[in-house]
Amino acid sequence: MAMLAIRPTPSNPSSSSSSSPSSSKTCTPHLLPARINHNGPIHNTQRYWAPSVDEKGTHHVHFRGRHLHGTPLPIPPGYTGAVLLTTEKALPRVPKPNHSVMHQLDSDGNGDGEPMYAHERCVDEEGNPADDEGEHMGEEEEEVKMAQEVGRFEELVVWGHGGVVGEGDEFVRGIREWVGFAEGMHCDDEEEEKVGEGRVEGIDLDMKDR
């Protein structure tokens, strides 16, 4: 899975300043137990999608003649849900410094001469390249793709066909269990009871089978 760099939508489309506040629309993503052969906006959503909510909080809708049952999942406190549009544009790589600066001795021998550059290398006592340097020389950095934030959400709805989804559903567990488990793995002992800030993995606009 490729890494993504999220770019918020500026409030002024003509402004590319990173200090511009985000104007992403608030929405509610719906995860369907089906594949839709369309990737893009739909202008008349009420014609195809008009869910209702019963007294238990379960969502109901008939989609192409199929009765679907929806379970709302709120985003955990301290997190932000983001709808992302992935692009083929790669995040520019920042070149790593690979040299140090040394000054040549001038006629007075005080080191004020013209600077010259020497590549940094790790060597052993005999002047041979260190083992770890050779291991990393052939490694390439993973490419990071740019993703445009097109919406934000505070909850999503997971739909099941023939009934509500169970507690073992991957999306239900991802929101209710795995987020807290990940926090516990990465928090220090003093921060175990604190809610860390972060963001839920963005939902790609490409809908996939579940």
TrEMBL record:
Residues 1-46, 190-210 are annotated as: Disordered. Residues 12-24 have a biased composition (Low complexity). Residues 195-210 have a biased composition (Basic and acidic residues). It holds the Pfam family RNase_H2_suC. GO terms for cellular component: ribonuclease H2 complex. GO terms for biological process: RNA catabolic process. This is Uncharacterized protein. It comes from Epicoccum nigrum.
